[in-house]
Specification:
Layout (H helix, E strand, L loop, with lengths): L1 E13 L5 E14 L4 E5 L6 H8 L7 E6 L2 E2 H9 L2 E5 L10 H11 L4 H14 L15 H13 L5 E5 L7 H16 L3 E6 L2 H7 L2 E6 L2 E6 L1 H8 L4 H9 L6
Parallel strand pairs: 3-8, 3-9, 6-7, 7-8
Antiparallel strand pairs: 1-2, 1-4, 4-5, 9-10
Length: about 250
């Protein structure tokens, strides 16, 4: 289980008067992601989603609070934890001169997956994401949707236990988005824990077991989509969000 406990994150910034000011991105965030469930992290730009996901993935350190994965923390077990997770954002940069197969082979070596296991996994992944036609092309020649499939593919090679997705379907067409959403549903059935950040409330209603709604760095609601709709007396998560923030909608 991924456990986020009382996470705060502040950044230092120089204002127009050349004075140092503190910007709070995340304020006292606590929730968990269990195996075999999809948890949606929802909120507008500036809500603190990406900062929080980078902290959970071990890319950033929190100002205070803690993140543990299977009761391990990054300070003591960083390498062990990172072998258990896969992190993908909508703007993940890939090695453009490599082919999808070459990239997956490189990732397999990085995670010390033995050659025969890696070869079988790569072949299975190519079939799973219908990548046969472009598996040996340079990544620089691929479409946005094909590139995002490759981004997910390189996350699968080491068979992670948890996935962290940051706007994974942003800017994709309906077909490419469906490939990713179907993959998330399949991995949930395989017992994987998935943290899924998105702007698209409709996606969250479709695939998430629970959602965490953020606004201005704070949690404003958690629960199943049904629980939040009942609480706010609304029919969809978009309306529920606006009902929860009330007049605090100047972002």
């Amino acid at each position: 289980m991924i456990e986020i406990k009382n996470v705060f994150k502040e950044f230092e910034k120089i204002d127009e008067n050349k004075k140092k000011i503190r910007i709070q991105a995340d304020n006292d965030i606590s929730f968990e992601v269990k195996e075999g469930e999809v948890v949606g992290l929802l909120g507008p730009n500036g809500a603190g989603k990406t900062t929080l996901l980078r902290i959970i993935a071990g890319i950033m350190q929190p100002t205070s609070g803690s993140v543990t994965i299977d009761d391990q923390d990054y300070k003591k077990k960083e390498l062990e934890i990172k072998k258990k997770i896969a992190f993908l954002s909508g703007n993940t940069k890939l090695y453009k001169e490599l082919s999808p197969v070459e990239l997956m082979e490189m990732c397999a070596k990085f995670y010390k997956v033995n050659k025969s296991t890696a070869s079988k996994r790569i072949n299975d992944i190519v079939k799973r994401f219908d990548m046969e036609k472009f598996k040996n092309q340079k990544i620089s020649t691929l479409s946005t949707g094909q590139g995002q499939r490759v981004g997910i593919a390189r996350c699968l090679v080491h068979n992670p236990k948890y996935y962290i997705f940051d706007e994974a379907t942003s800017g994709l067409d309906i077909i490419s988005s469906k490939v990713i959403l179907d993959f998330i549903k399949e991995e949930k059935q395989n017992g994987k824990g998935i943290l899924y950040s998105t702007h698209y409330m409709e996606e969250a209603e479709n695939i998430c077991d629970r959602v965490v709604l953020l606004n201005r760095g704070r949690i404003i609601a958690t629960g199943t989509p049904e629980e939040i709709l009942k609480k706010t007396k609304t029919s969809n998560l978009r309306d529920a969000f606006f009902a929860l923030i009330g007049d605090d909608n100047n972002e």
